[in-house]
Amino acid sequence: MLVVVLRKVVATRYVLPLREGGSLPGLVEADDSGMYVVKFVGAGQGRKTLVAEVVTGELGRALGLPVPELALVELDPVIGRGEPDPEVQELLKASGGLNLGMDFLPGSLGFDPLAFDTDPGFAGRVLWLDALTGNVDRSWRNPNMLLWHGRPYLIDHGATLVFHHSWANAERFVSRPYDASDHVLSGFSPDLAAADAALAPAVGEELLRATVDLVPDEWLADEPGFGSPGEVRDAYVRHLLARLSERSWLPEAGR
Prior knowledge:
The chain is α+β, with helices and mostly antiparallel strands and 255 residues long. It has helices at 47-62, 86-93, 120-133, 171-174, 192-199, 205-212, 229-245; strands at 7-17, 26-30, 35-39, 70-75, 97-103, 109-110, 145-148, 151-154.
């Protein structure tokens, strides 16, 4: 299970806003001729959303779950000069530097649990990752899953790792139970016991540190209570390891 280095691209054209998301992500073309769904560092939800996207998304990928490729997108604010929407202009002006892109999946469909099926093994692994990271945003109302070429992909992990919004109270997260009653895959008989047996041994300090190391320093700098980005990284690893060892977060079916 390897964690890859995030590739870095330069935004060359802002194509259009994607207003389905509260943070106003946008479709952006880059200098590698690729198209990316970009979440901007200047959005109201802030850089911690981008940190959560990287840590949880790349952890999921390392565990064999399908996550669209992520990339660091360098953006020059002048790219927004020609945008007619003043809200978009302001967002791009506030987002100079590194932003987070997700590989655009053209023609993908939103996952509908009433129209599509999945197996208990896959459902269990997704639910396990969401429970570990405290994902509050994969419900039947907002699945944050896409179907592309018949395969499900996991997207939008910005609502995970909620403990980093209040480091002073982060210890409370360690043993907080995960409520799976609203989870989009709860109706597919998720095999949590098998998922836990397969995934828990794989998530050790080495993997967590490699994943957290993918986060750019500038998204971790000047965090209150920490002296350096390295200290913030240590805190992420420490809290996730502590949660992993505390079994009360795992829904009952997986214990």
